[in-house]
C-alpha cells in the first residue's frame, strides 16, 4: 500500500517538473522572440539571453518576460518598442531603447502589469499606461532622448490608469518624472527624479499618495493641478532654483494634506494658487528665496507646526487671502523671530508678522535684501511686531513657537545642527553689536539718500 503511494507521489512530482520546464523558453534574437510571443501559451516564462533584440514587440498573452544581464530590446525608431496588450504581464531585467518621436519604451494597455528592474533610455516616454488599472512600476531606471533637446517625454505616464503604484524608480532628464492624469487611488513612493520640468505632476486626479520621493534640479518638484485629497508626505525637494519654480506648486487643489516634507535651497519652497482647505504641518523650509507663497484665491488653509529657517522671505501672501496659521494654540517656528517668553511656555510672547516694513522696502528696492537677518533689521522687526504700530502685514501667526516643531528628517541637515546657530557666546555678542551699528548706519544713509533724490 505504502509502496504504491510512494510511486504515485514520485510520478506526480516528475509530471510537475516536466510541466514547469515546458513553461520556460529561452530566446537569443529578435526573430525567436517574435515567434515565442506569437506562439506561447499563457503564463509561460520567456527568457531573453544576453544580446540585442531589434524590432517592435507585442505581448498579447499573460507571460513573464525576463532578460538576462545584457539583454537589450532596440526599437526601430518609430512606434513603441514593447506593447503590452494582455493582463497580468511581467517585464523584468531588460534594457529598452529606440522608440518613435512620440512613443514609449513600454506602452501598456492591459491591466495589472508588473514592470521592474528595467533600464529604459533613448525613448520619448519611458512607461506609458493608458486606460488600464492596477500596475506596479518598481526599481526601473528611466530617461528620455539623449542630449539637451527639449523634446523629451515623461518617465512614467499614467492616463486613466487608477490603482497604480510607482516605487523606487530613478528618473532623470525627462519632461516630467511621473505624470498622473485622470488616475485615482495611485501611489508614488520612494522615487528619485533629477532634472525634470516637474518631478511629480498630477492632473484631475483624486486620492493620490506622494511619499518619500526626492526631486532636485528641476523647475517644480511637484506640480499638483486640479486634484483633490492628495497626501504629500515625507518628500525632499532640493535645488529647484528656476525663476518662479518651487519645491511644490499646488494649483487649483483642495482638501489635501502636506506633511513632513523638506524644501531646501529652492527658489520657492511651496507656492499656492487657488488652493483651498489644505493642511500644512511639520514641513521644513530651509534656505529658499521664499519659504511659502500664497497667491490669489488660496483660502481656508491650515498652516501650523512648520519650521522656517534661513529663507530670504519666510511667508508672503496675497492680501485678500484668509488662512489659519495657528491650530490648537500652536503656530509655526521662524528662525528670524525673537524668543521673548516671559511665561516660559512653548510660544513666543508676541505674534509673527510677515510683510513688515523691511519686507515692503525690499519689494520696492530689492538691493536692500542684502541686509536680510542683519541685527538692525531683526531689532526693527521685533519693535514693530511687539508694539501695536500700524503695519501692512498680511500674514500673522498669533502663536509662533519658541523652539522648532519636532520633525524627523531622513535627509538634509539635522535639527540640532540648525538650532545650534541660535547659541550665542561672547564673541558672537561682540560681533552682533558691531554689525548692528554698521547696519543701522548704512540703512539710515540709504534712507536719507532716497528722500534727497
UniProtKB/TrEMBL annotation:
**Transmembrane intervals:** 426-444
Q: Does the keyword Membrane apply?
A: yes
Cross-referenced SUPFAM superfamilies, in alphabetical order?
Pectin lyase-like
Pfam families on file? NosD
Carbohydrate-binding/sugar hydrolysis domain mapped to chain residues: 48-181
- Give the pathway listed in the UniProt entry for this protein: Protein modification; protein ubiquitination
Is Lipid biosynthesis set as a keyword in this record? no
Keywords associated with the record: Membrane, Repeat, Transmembrane, Transmembrane helix, Ubl conjugation pathway
Q: Which PANTHER family match?
A: F-BOX ONLY PROTEIN, F-BOX ONLY PROTEIN 10
Q: By what name is this protein known? A: Nitrous oxidase accessory protein NosD
Amino acid at each position: 500500500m505504502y509502496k504504491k503511494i510512494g510511486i504515485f507521489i514520485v510520478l506526480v512530482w516528475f509530471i510537475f517538473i516536466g510541466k514547469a520546464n515546458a513553461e520556460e523558453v529561452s530566446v537569443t534574437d529578435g526573430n525567436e522572440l517574435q515567434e515565442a510571443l506569437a506562439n506561447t501559451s499563457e503564463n509561460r516564462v520567456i527568457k531573453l539571453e544576453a544580446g540585442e533584440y531589434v524590432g517592435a514587440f507585442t505581448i498579447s498573452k499573460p507571460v513573464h518576460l525576463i532578460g538576462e544581464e545584457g539583454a537589450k530590446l532596440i526599437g526601430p525608431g518609430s512606434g513603441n518598442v514593447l506593447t503590452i496588450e494582455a493582463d497580468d504581464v511581467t517585464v523584468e531585467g531588460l534594457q529598452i531603447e529606440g522608440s518613435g518621436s512620440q512613443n514609449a519604451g513600454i506602452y501598456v494597455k492591459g491591466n495589472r502589469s508588473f514592470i521592474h528592474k528595467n533600464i529604459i533610455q533613448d525613448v520619448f516616454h519611458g512607461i506609458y499606461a493608458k486606460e488600464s488599472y492596477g500596475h506596479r512600476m518598481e526599481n526601473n531606471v528611466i530617461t528620455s532622448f539623449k542630449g539637451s533637446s527639449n523634446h523629451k517625454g515623461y518617465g512614467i505616464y499614467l492616463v486613466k490608469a487608477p490603482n497604480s503604484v510607482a516605487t523606487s524608480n530613478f528618473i532623470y532628464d525627462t519632461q516630467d518624472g511621473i505624470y498622473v492624469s485622470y488616475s485615482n487611488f495611485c501611489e508614488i513612493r520612494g522615487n528619485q527624479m533629477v532634472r525634470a520640468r516637474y518631478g511629480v505632476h498630477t492632473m484631475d486626479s483624486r486620492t493620490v499618495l506622494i511619499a518619500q520621493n526626492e526631486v532636485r534640479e528641476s523647475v517644480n518638484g511637484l506640480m499638483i493641478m486640479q486634484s483633490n485629497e492628495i497626501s504629500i508626505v515625507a518628500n525632499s525637494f532640493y535645488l529647484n532654483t528656476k525663476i518662479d519654480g518651487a519645491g511644490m506648486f499646488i494649483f487649483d487643489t483642495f482638501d489635501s494634506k502636506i506633511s513632513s516634507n523638506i524644501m531646501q535651497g529652492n527658489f520657492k519652497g511651496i507656492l499656492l494658487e487657488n488652493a483651498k482647505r489644505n493642511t500644512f504641518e511639520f514641513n521644513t523650509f530651509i534656505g529658499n528665496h521664499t519659504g511659502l507663497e500664497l497667491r490669489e484665491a488660496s483660502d481656508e488653509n491650515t498652516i501650523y507646526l512648520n519650521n522656517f529657517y534661513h529663507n530670504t522671505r519666510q511667508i508672503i501672501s496675497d492680501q485678500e487671502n484668509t488662512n489659519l496659521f495657528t491650530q490648537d494654540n500652536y503656530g509655526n517656528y521662524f528662525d528670524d523671530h525673537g524668543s521673548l517668553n516671559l511665561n516660559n511656555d512653548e510660544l513666543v510672547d508676541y505674534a509673527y508678522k510677515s510683510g513688515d516694513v523691511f519686507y515692503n522696502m525690499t519689494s520696492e528696492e530689492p538691493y536692500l535684501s542684502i541686509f536680510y537677518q542683519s541685527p538692525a533689521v531683526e531689532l526693527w522687526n521685533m519693535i514693530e511686531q511687539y508694539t501695536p504700530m500700524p503695519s501692512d502685514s498680511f500674514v500673522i501667526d498669533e502663536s509662533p513657537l519658541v523652539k522648532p516643531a519636532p520633525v524627523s528628517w531622513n535627509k538634509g541637515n539635522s535639527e540640532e545642527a540648525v538650532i545650534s546657530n541660535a547659541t550665542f557666546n561672547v564673541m558672537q555678542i561682540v560681533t552682533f553689536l558691531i554689525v548692528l551699528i554698521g547696519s543701522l548706519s548704512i540703512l539710515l544713509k540709504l534712507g536719507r539718500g532716497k528722500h534727497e533724490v
